[in-house]
Amino acid sequence: MTESNSQSRVRFQPLRRLAPFAWKYKGLVLAALASLVVASLATLSLPILVRGFVDRGISENNIADVNHYTALLVLAVVVLALMSASRYYFVIILGERVVNDLRTAVFAKLTLLSPAFYDRVRSGEIVSRLTADATQIRSAVGASASMALRNFLLFAGAAVMMVVTSPRMSLLVLGAIPFIVIPLVLLGRWVRRRQRFAQDRLADSSAFATEAIGSMRILQSFTQEERAKSVFSSNIEAAFGAARASVRARAVLTAFAFFVIFTSIVAVLWYAAHDVTAGRLSAGALSQFVIYSTMAAAGLGGMSEVWGEISQASGSAERLFELLDEPVLVKNAQVVSPLVTASNLSVAFEGVDFHYPSSEERTVLSALSFAIAGGETVAIVGPSGAGKTTVFQLLMRFYDPERGRILLGGQPIGGLDLNALRSAIALVPQEPVIFAMSIADNIAMGREGAEREAIIEAARAAHAHDFIAQLPEGYDTMVGERGVTLSGGQRQRLAIARAILKDAPILLLDEATSALDAESERYVQLALADLMKGRTTIVIAHRLATVKKADRILVLEGGALVEQGTHDSLVTAGGLYARLAQLQFGMDDLGHDLD
Ligand code: ADP
Ligand code: MG
Fold first, then answer.
1. What residues flank ion ligand 2 with Cβ within 5 A?
2. What is the mean pLDDT of residues 117-130?
3. Could you mention a single GO BP entry for this protein (predicted)?
4. pLDDT digits (tens, 9 = 90+) for 81-107
5. Class assignment of domain 13-325?
6. CB contact at 8 A, 381 and 577
7. Which ligand sits nearest to residue 431's alpha carbon?
8. What span, in angstroms and rounded, lies between the C-alpha atoms of 271 and 74?
9. Sign (positive/negative) of CA torsion 587, 589, 592, 594?
10. Where are the domains of the chain?
């Protein structure tokens, strides 16, 4: 991001798209506008009252008029104060409303986006849009927009009143404006360059800190603490240096602005004094003129100040609307056919070609076809990267295939209601995700609103009840961030309990071996054996025991089906499976079995 780019190319298109969000709160918008207009009128009335005070009251020694105008001035100030307060209130509430609605809309959109989107956009980036960018918009919609409008009204009103008060002196001020504005603009650019440079240095140090915090364990294991500290502190020092330079620039700008503005006012006063002594201008008119010129200058300055904020908000709005505009890749067909639910649903892949949207050139599945009968247990075996997990992803419709069909109970899944499809499948992933909520709630994800007895029953079936009962608060124990940490085997048993509670006709198991110790593994095995009974089960198998229990084994390699059959027939065939069995399941096991 270079200075000239972001300066010259402020695009208001994204800001315009905020209008419908704001207009949803017509009442607030209108109340804010009304307060703003009344407050500006009250401000603009002040110089007229001052003029009356001076010309009618002081100059003519008329105490009655002095009192009269004093009362009017106080009244104007009271109106100004009240209206400023109500403007502030309405505008801030409006900003909060709009940004909450935007956040809600974006989050709702995020829940619709398929994994293809999350493969491409980092979650940190999304969170920063949802927080930092939304906050930027909040202040723009609220404070900045109303400040801009207020300053514009003040500037325009005061400029008109200057001309009304004294056209001759207005011309004079007009002539002086370039001498004031041009150096201020140039100086302002210099200051902004400094500020951006300082922000970038700060961002550098945050980026380094984020990385270091995320990998503190690695840093410590390589005893890199000292080096990290010195890199971070030199980053911080650089950020400080840049901040100091930026503050200095800002100080120079402030001093210069004060100097030129007040010198100009003094110059106008000096010049006008001649008109006053010559009787061409009243003292009150002079006061009126000077106050209006100050207001016009303040209005102009104020507008340039909020300009930066508004252009930043425009960028933020663009980033948020980008999320809202993100196409939904996987969605329901126009007409969805109801899923004919049977306890035993068949599954079939017919000539499926697939590559991940994030890596176009790499084919992951090619012409993959297989059929699994209802109630059958099938194991998928193959080297790492063969496309085993991808089969599950497609069956759950996280992605749609490029070519070919996937059938569930004989129906193409593209024509099924997405929720009905996913409700029919229970997936136990390789690395189960446990959320930062209670154990009971974690299990209840399998079935919304499940009763406590059902949850406990599922946990018992998953051989998880005993360890849960030993936790400090049993099923109400919080897990994750601020709760207990669970072992790999415990997490997996919770995931199985979820699947048991879901009681879906199709079961997909991405079998994990690495996370489990021998005892956990035994429990997990027991739990799975119960779960698989009477369901169509596809298991990505890494264990010989599982493979041997399967009715049939599909062997995948490079995204294609290379062999299928039972353990014994495949071992006899002596192909890829026989080799894999030796490598993956261990010589001893296999040797023993072959005899
Ligand atoms: P397996 O489960 O058999 O080990 P996967 O189905 O996970 O293999 O992956 C098959 C291939 O697809 C691999 O080459 C992998 O790198 C690639 N792949 C997996 N997930 C993604 C993804 N989200 N985006 C892009 N490529 C992926
Ligand atoms: Mg896998």
1. 389
2. 86
3. oligopeptide export from mitochondrion
4. 999 999 999 999 999 999 999 999 999
5. mainly alpha
6. yes
7. 2
8. 31
9. negative
10. 13-325, 343-424+505-518+534-595, 431-503
Mean pLDDT confidence for 265-293: 88
pLDDT score recorded for residue 1: 35
Q: Whose CA is nearest to atom 22 of ligand 1?
A: 356
What CATH number was assigned to the domain covering residues 431-503? 3.40.50.300
Q: Could you tell me how far CA 152 lies from the centroid of its own chain?
A: 33
Quote the CATH superfamily of domain 343-424+505-518+534-595: P-loop containing nucleotide triphosphate hydrolases (3.40.50.300)
pLDDT level of residue 588 (50, 70, 90 thresholds): very low
Percent of the chain with pLDDT over 70: 94
Mean pLDDT of the chain, nearest integer: 88
**What pLDDT digit, counting tens, does each position of 188-235 carry?**
888 888 888 888 888 888 888 888 888 888 999 999 999 999 999 999
pLDDT digit string (tens) for 154-178?
A: 999 999 999 999 898 898 888 888 8
Q: Which atom of ligand 1 is nearest to the CA of 119?
A: 23
| Residue 36 confidence (pLDDT) | 94
- pLDDT for the residue 393: 95
Which of 122, 368, 390 most suits a substitution to test ligand 1, by most atoms within 8 Å of the C-beta? 390
Task: Extract the tokens encoding 107.
Answer: 């989050």
**Is residue 577 within 8 Å of residue 544, measured between CB atoms?**
no
Ligand at minimal distance from the CA of 558 is 1
State the DSSP H helix or E strand holding residue 552, giving kind and residue range, or none if neither: strand 552-557
Which ranges constitute the DSSP H helices of 113-133? 115-120, 123-128
- Tell me, in angstroms, the distance from the centre of ligand 2 to residue 366's CA: 17
Mutate to test the pocket of ligand 1, among 113, 114, 356, 576 (most ligand atoms within 8 A of CB): 356
Cα distances (Å, whole numbers) of residue 15 to 245, 302, 313, 444, 445: 32, 20, 8, 42, 39
Report the pocket of ligand 1 as residue ranges, CB < 6 Å.
Answer: 119, 356, 358-359, 364, 382, 384-390
Please provide the distance, in angstroms rounded to a whole number, between the alpha carbons at the two ends of the chain: 69
Q: What percent of the chain has pLDDT over 90?
A: 51
